[in-house]
Amino acid sequence: MAVRVLCSTGDGLELRTLHRGLAARIFQTVDAERGQLGRWLPWVHATQGLPDTVKFIQNARDLFLHGEGIHGAIWDQDEFVGMMALRMVSKADRIGNVGYWLCARAQGRGIITRLLGNFVGYCFEEWKLHRLELQCAAANERSCRVAERLGFRHEGLLRGARLINGAYLDMNLFSLLEPEWRARAPQAATNNATSRR
Ligand SMILES: CC(C)(COP(=O)(O)OP(=O)(O)OC[C@H]1O[C@@H](n2cnc3c(N)ncnc32)[C@H](O)[C@@H]1OP(=O)(O)O)[C@@H](O)C(=O)NCCC(=O)NCCS
Fold first, then answer.
1. How remote is the C-alpha of 37 from its chain's centroid?
2. Are 153 and 129 in contact (CB under 8 A)?
3. pLDDT in tens, 49-107
4. Cα 101 to averaged position of ligand 1 atoms, centre (Å)
């Protein structure tokens, strides 16, 4: 499967499909940044060697080919800086869950806010989803601000819902419905369509 650009903000920030050749780069990034990533992402601890990432990429490609999810690589000016995902919560109900992470040097520049804003449009338009969910630890203030900035509505607190490093974290549940997204950014659909290759 050739690498595809799934969405782009038009200024060098892109979400691209994965390929096997990226495994070493992804693993090295995760391995070098276990501290900051492992604080919030449960899979970091389970990623212990390159074969884990090779297997992850294979699974991600199968998911994508079967329309069951997306794991994309975030590229900023042709430099790999992180990942963004859509996992299907229910295909029948057209509900998905979005997630993301960035390497430390790329954080604090609005990359996730800008690209997720674009990706949300991609999920609603190309995958015909009706509802997107976003869960983040209540203590992960920066990630919660991403959700709020993009118009996700806070639905509640899932108490002790994620086990990370031996501790059960409270998770904020946010959601965005397709009509809300459309009403909020009527021009987003056009921008999204024109930015896609
Ligand atoms: C959470 C995380 C994805 C946020 O990524 P990010 O790109 O830094 O987030 P944003 O796009 O919101 O940008 C953040 C900052 O950039 C600043 N910024 C600069 N230019 C900006 C722009 N054009 N648009 C928006 N924000 C901009 C904002 O002020 C914002 O500051 P704040 O967080 O203090 O409010 C990142 O910190 C990360 O990967 N953390 C570790 C893994 C993780 O927590 N993943 C999420 C699990 S739910």
1. 14
2. no
3. 999 999 999 999 999 999 999 999 999 999 999 999 999 999 999 999 999 999 999 99
4. 9
CA 140, 87, 8, 52 dihedral sign is positive
> What separation in Å is there between the alpha carbon of 110 and the centre of ligand 1?
5
pLDDT tens, position by position, 100-126 = 999 999 999 999 999 999 999 999 999
Tell me, using a 6 A CB cutoff, whether residue 34 lines ligand 1: no
Q: Which mutation among 36, 39, 113, 116 tests ligand 1's pocket best, with the greatest number of atoms within 8 A of CB?
A: 113
> Around 15, how many Cα atoms within 13 Å sit in the side-chain half-sphere?
29
| Ligand 1 contact, 40 CB (< 6 A) | yes
- Report field, pTM of the whole predicted structure over 0.85: yes
Superfamily of domain 5-195 in CATH is Gcn5-related N-acetyltransferase (GNAT) (3.40.630.30)
Angle between helical axes of 23-32 and 50-65 (0-180°, round to 10): 120
Q: Where are the domains of the chain?
A: 5-195
Please tell me the residue having the least CA distance from ligand 1 atom 15.
108
